[in-house]
């Protein structure tokens, strides 16, 4: 599987336009086969998570970023459906509250990073502070560069204290976003998902693509890589994220902790 082709560990020569949102590099052949593979991987990941939680030593932070309708919620529901809720937590970052605005922008993020044995999913993240803020001119270029540096330092702190960071950009095309927004409008059971502000943000599509390209280029490192996940196909998006996590666990090789000494001598009356 060509994971290396979609893993960005350095900003040198990185060009987002070189990645086709409609490609399916991890497809098994057809949708049913892909869904079966996702179910298989989800079950395997569930076991790995159980061992990881019992190990209670390291941490995993999964960052899901993407344009509206790219499928952050759908990825969480599909890929992590079998995980034990004791060892996983989903955090969604909304507009900062007055209390959060009174502090540095990373303060609220640091509060939510994983504890030992825990997997935390960021549904949007600290990267909003170099995306929407940059697109709308709330910060200038100099401040954006400072934040790139601060984010790299923040993520280095996390990795050096036992956190594995997995950053996924769910790469959807503008045409596919249009189709998904129209589907929401047409389905009474999905209309609650429709937000008119999505249309306003859609007008800044090119600026967002530029902002994502700059942010990914500036914050990709071997320790904290970005993965570009083609997301026009929902099934393939979920499959690829599951494959990425499977590769992460193969690298981590979690193991149950050894039993306490003299456990064999214990007698329960």
Shape: globular
Q: How would you spell out the order of helices and strands?
A: EHEHEHHEHHEHHHEH
Please give the radius of gyration in angstroms. Answer: 20 Å
Structural class: alpha/beta
Mean pLDDT: 94
Number of strands: 6
Biggest β-sheet strands, sense, barrel: 6 strands, mixed
Could you list the spans in which at least 5 consecutive residues all have pLDDT below 50? none
**CATH fold node name:** Rossmann fold
Identify the strand order in the major beta sheet. 1-6-5-2-4-3
Q: Could you state the CATH homologous superfamily?
A: P-loop containing nucleotide triphosphate hydrolases
CATH class, anyone? Alpha Beta
* Beta-strand residue percentage: 5-15%
Task: Identify the CATH architecture.
Answer: 3-Layer(aba) Sandwich
Task: Please tell me the total number of domains.
Answer: 1
InterPro entries: P-loop_NTPase, Polyphosphate_phosphotransfera, PPK2-rel_1, PPK2-related
Domain Polyphosphate kinase-2-related: 30-247
EC number: 2.7.4.-
GO biological process, one term: polyphosphate metabolic process
């Amino acid at each position: 599987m060509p994971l290396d082709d979609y893993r960005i560990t350095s900003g040198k020569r990185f060009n987002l336009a070189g990645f086709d949102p409609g490609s399916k590099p991890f497809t098994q052949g057809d949708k049913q086969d892909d869904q079966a593979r996702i179910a298989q991987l989800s079950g395997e990941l569930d076991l790995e998570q159980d061992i990881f939680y019992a190990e209670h030593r390291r941490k995993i932070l999964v960052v899901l970023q993407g344009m509206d309708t790219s499928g952050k919620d759908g990825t969480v529901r599909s890929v992590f459906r079998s995980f034990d809720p004791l060892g996983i937590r989903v955090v969604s970052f909304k507009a900062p509250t007055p209390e959060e605005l009174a502090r540095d922008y990373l303060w609220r993020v640091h509060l939510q990073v994983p504890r030992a044995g825990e997997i935390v999913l960021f549904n949007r993240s600290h990267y909003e502070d170099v995306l929407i803020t940059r697109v709308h001119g709330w910060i200038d270029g100099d401040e954006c560069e400072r934040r790139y540096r601060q984010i790299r330092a923040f993520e280095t702190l996390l990795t050096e204290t036992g956190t594995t960071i997995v950053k996924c950009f769910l790469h959807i095309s503008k045409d596919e976003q249009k189709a998904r927004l129209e589907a929401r409008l047409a389905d009474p059971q999905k209309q609650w998902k429709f937000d008119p502000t999505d249309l306003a943000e859609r007008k800044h599509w090119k600026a967002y693509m530029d902002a994502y390209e700059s942010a990914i280029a500036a914050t990709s490192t071997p320790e904290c890589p970005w993965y570009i996940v083609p997301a026009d196909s929902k099934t393939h998006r979920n499959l690829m994220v599951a494959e990425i996590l499977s590769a992460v666990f193969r690298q981590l090789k979690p193991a149950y902790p050894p039993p306490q000494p003299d456990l064999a001598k214990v007698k329960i009356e």
